[in-house]
Write a structure and sequence with these properties.
36% helix, 24 helices
């Protein structure tokens, strides 16, 4: 039997442009000798044993990786100092400079991922994961030990391929499509968010190491970078609590902006609260030549709000007109890129694909800030108003956080265009602080979703009152007007691609995640054509909680019209 698994990183789907980022063309490409084929007999990895023991540091001797063409972005890193240890990473480590100075690390390859090798050898895997701040997934091979590690944010995907009769992964990659083209006869699975998949001799185990997103409302005191965050058992006075939350938000945004190249920072800007907070922090930090991007149909009501936001932060604003006709023609490319048929993911993918394509062709932006994630953490979706208790609210919130796919599909699209997309509101410093407050504080109040966060931001320099108390609008919905909703047009165009008689057999054809609309059926057909038989690639799809509807768009729900009738700002002023 051979360890470690193959690391597949070099395939570029033919219909998607291959983007070269972070690669020195003068440096020769590294190659590795192929190894023998796996021969094993054991159940699938679904039955991995959960392990609560500490992971130890193993002494490396040798390792080997198959001679597969690697992409420029995800090339393996080895150093002479540690023979036999190799790492391949999709990582953005925000405290890279601090770690390098603290542990006196000298890089010999010029690649930032090399720091993972040094930290692993100095600290061991468990302690290394405790000191890293950033967004990452990586594959680390140490002699006959292999670790497939994914962080707790879920922003960077990590997949593995497994034969039906093998004890564990025989190949691993950051993109499922690479594994499928490597061997399309096996099942492809995702490493769960915040988990480590690793081998203990011939057996494989799975261990959860980052679970902060799965336990909202926990009662504990957590110290991050010397800052004690308040928890259910340690609530500070209201004024101090609000100030602390604002400072944490600023810190998480600035940590990311300072690691970016000057003049190459962008912001996905709509008229909403999330991105406006980020924009104002970047403005106060005096980020030079900040570029903002808005995408929408000509009828979008968000266009004026986005322009006003760009003007307030003095950014170089770009208004991208969304063309539905082009978007429909991009459906197959987007599904191939995001590797899912989830309706919500495909719709967001179509928008982001247009944005990233525009940035790549007409801008030099390398780092794109995005407000995604805050609505998942704060429970902004309007169906959370149907929660009868704080426990029910947290139960729905936890389930949605575990199933969230948006962040990883954002990274998959952006990275293909050489762009690093950043989600500051998913920083553990912020999420651990925010979720540590009791559910009773975080539930919607007075019909206002995200009330706790809004109240903490009130009368601050981070946001204006008008933007702070406006209705929450899903990014996908805000692209077009209420009367000319682009999703309706998209559904109509997708329906023309589906034979009605075939759609009626949906349950018979697709018993797993059965499509409920012609649009979903069309996306499923495209996916099955690209990745036939890969049921494990999409374990679940997005469905609204609390039975408000089957379509992920809030504008299709009966409660949406009731939500629009509320005037948040007037409600707050009446309370004062």
């Amino acid at each position: 039997m051979r360890f470690p698994p193959r690391i597949v990183t070099g395939y570029s789907p033919p219909s998607i442009p291959r983007i070269v980022t972070g690669y020195n063309s003068d440096r020769p490409t590294e190659t590795f000798s192929p190894t023998e084929t796996d021969q094993a007999a054991s159940p699938l990895l679904d039955n991995l044993e959960d392990d609560d023991d500490d992971i130890r540091t193993w002494i490396p001797e040798c390792t080997s990786v198959d001679n597969i063409p690697y992409s420029h972005r995800y090339r393996p890193v080895t150093v002479d100092e540690y023979p036999g240890v190799v790492v391949v990473a999709n990582a953005d480590i925000f405290n890279f400079n601090q770690l390098r100075e603290k542990y006196e690390i000298t890089l010999s390859t010029g690649r930032r991922e090399e720091i993972l090798l040094h930290l692993y050898m100095k600290l061991g895997l468990t302690e290394m994961l405790g000191v890293i701040q950033g967004e990452f997934s990586f594959i680390l091979c140490d002699r006959d030990r292999s670790f497939l590690v994914r962080d707790g944010t879920g922003n960077r995907d990590l997949c593995y391929l497994q034969y039906p009769d093998s004890p564990g992964p025989v190949a691993a990659s950051f993109r499922a499509s690479l594994l499928f083209n490597y061997n399309n006869m096996c099942q492809i699975r995702h490493v769960p968010i915040g988990s480590i998949v690793y081998n203990e001799g011939p057996s494989w185990r799975r261990r959860v190491w980052a679970s902060v997103y799965m336990k909202p409302g926990y009662n504990d005191v957590t110290a991050v970078n010397g800052l004690t965050v308040c928890t259910a058992g340690n609530i500070s006075p209201l004024g101090q609590m609000r100030l602390r939350l604002r400072n944490i938000i600023k810190q998480t945004i600035l940590a990311r902006s300072r690691s970016a190249t000057i003049g190459k920072v962008g912001l996905l800007l709509s008229g909403g609260l999330n991105c406006r907070i980020i924009g104002n922090v970047l403005r106060d930090e005096r980020v030079k030549h900040l570029k903002t991007f808005f995408i929408g149909a000509k009828s979008s009501h968000e266009r004026l709000s986005s322009e006003a936001g760009a003007k307030s932060i003095s950014s170089q604003h770009h208004d991208i007109t969304f063309d539905l006709k082009n978007a429909v023609s991009d459906v197959e490319t987007v599904i191939e890129l995001i590797e899912t048929y989830d309706t919500s993911a495909v719709r967001k993918g179509l928008l982001l694909y247009s944005v990233c394509k525009f940035i790549h062709e007409k801008s030099n932006v390398e780092v794109l800030f995005c407000g995604e994630g805050l609505d998942d953490i704060a429970g902004s979706h309007i169906y959370y108003k149907n929660a009868k208790t704080a426990e029910e609210f947290d139960w729905a919130l936890s389930g949605n956080l575990r199933k969230a796919q948006t962040r990883e599909i954002f990274d998959k699209i952006a990275s293909w265009f050489g762009i690093s997309i950043v989600f500051p509101f998913l920083d553990p410093l912020f999420t651990s602080h925010y979720l540590s407050h009791p559910g009773e504080d975080r539930v919607p109040r007075f019909g206002i979703e995200k009330y706790f966060l809004r109240s903490c931001m009130d009368h601050s320099d981070l946001i204006t009152e008008e933007v702070l108390w406006r209705h929450h609008e899903e990014w996908v919905d805000s692209v077009s007007s209420y009367n000319n909703f682009w999703i309706t047009s998209l559904q109509r165009k997708c329906s023309k691609q589906v034979i009605p008689e075939v759609f009626l057999k949906s349950a018979e054809l697709y018993s797993h995640n059965t499509p409920t609309s012609p649009e979903e059926f069309y996306y499923r057909q495209v996916f099955e054509r690209l990745f036939p038989g890969q049921l494990a690639m999409v374990p679940h799809i997005t469905r609204p909680s609390f039975d408000v509807g089957t379509d992920p768009s809030p504008r299709t729900w009966p409660i949406y019209s009731q939500h629009l009738c509320l005037d948040f700002l007037s409600t707050i002023r009446m309370m004062i």
